[in-house]
Amino acid sequence: MRSLMMRSVDRFIGVFFVLFGGFWIVQASRFEFLDVVPGPGFLPMSLAVLIVGLGILLLVTRQFGAPEKFGSFKPPTRHELMRAGSVAAITALGMVLLPYLGFMTTFVLMIVALLFGLERMRTVGAAVTAVAIPVATYLVFSTFLGVRLPEGPFGI
User: Fold this and answer.
1) Which domain holds residue 27?
2) How much is the pLDDT for 22?
3) Residue 29 pLDDT > 80
4) Which of 17, 23, 135, 155 is deepest in the core (most CB within 10 A)?
5) Has residue 152 been placed in a domain?
6) What's the gap between Cα 127 and its chain centre?
């Protein structure tokens, strides 16, 4: 019985994703999608298509998949809720600090907080990741896409 109920909930969520994504496809189609560079409609349209695709995937897998493969819903533990709250708090703090510290500094601090603080990864790979991801992101947006990113007091 519980498996049947979960299937119904999953179907409802799948339909919701398809309708929600479809709404945003219509909204995003009002903006320029692509000229020489991606326009203001590129990201919303891409995300909306992704949401519709995931909704369809959820509907198909729940319709034709074996119910015993889905498992039952388990509410998150207190530890899992604390981790999710920590990620949200780090993200919110990053949003507050972004105009003052700039993109690079804020992004590096956020990655360091996530990897070294939350995940407790204290390896050379984690340190390289904490620098490489912000640098790569900066290069993609600033250099290749021509997006101005906030600069901090250090000029970065």
Assistant:
1) 2-69
2) 94
3) yes
4) 17
5) no
6) 22
Asked whether residue 85 falls in the same domain as residue 65, the answer is no
Same domain for 49 and 100? no
- Are residues 97 and 54 part of one domain? no
Average confidence score pLDDT of the chain: 85
**Can you read off the two tokens belonging to residue 151?**
């600069």
Please name the amino acid found at residue 80: E
Number of domains in the chain: 2
CA distance 34 to 39: 5
Assign 38 to helix, strand or coil: strand
Name the pTM for this structure: 0.61
Of 124, 128, 113, nearest in space to 83 by CA: 113
Helices (H) and strands (E) counted in the chain, each on its own, are 5, 0
Enter the tokens of residue 28: 């995003």
Region 36-51: mean pLDDT is 85
Q: Which residue has the higher pLDDT, 16 or 119?
A: 16
